[in-house]
Amino acid sequence: MNANESMTQFIDSHCHIDGPEYDADRDEVIARAREAGVTTMLNVGTGDPHSGAFERAVELAEKHNEDLRGRRRPSSRREAV
């Protein structure tokens, strides 16, 4: 490691970067996060299980597999256990 590299790594443990508000610049947002030291982003698919949110989160994680991980947040306590 040279003097310009930092050992600090950040993990965004809860983001929703799969949403339509990021359609125009999602790749740039991910690149800026990476440049800022974010090594992993946990993109959480939420909402109606039939809305496609989880599938979008997984698709995005597969596209950016070094930076993003997709996960579905449980919609109820029963589902979380």
Keywords for this structure?
81 residues; alpha/beta; 3 helices; 23% strand
Mind explaining what this structure looks like?
The protein is α/β, with parallel strands linked by helices and 81 residues long. The protein has one domain. The protein is 31% helix and 23% strand. It has 3 helices and 3 strands. It has helices spanning 26-35, 53-63, 77-80; strands at residues 10-15, 38-45, 68-72. It has a 3-stranded parallel sheet with strand order 1-2-3. α2 (53-63) links the parallel β2 (38-45) and β3 (68-72).
Helix-strand pattern: EHEHEH
Number of self-contained structural domains: 1
**Mean residue pLDDT:** 75
Q: In one word, what is the shape?
A: elongated
Blueprint of the fold:
Elements: E1 10-15, H1 26-35, E2 38-45, H2 53-63, E3 68-72, H3 77-80
Parallel strand pairs: 1-2, 2-3
Provide a concise account of the structure shown:
This protein is α/β, with parallel strands linked by helices and 81 residues long. 31% of the residues lie in helices and 23% in strands.
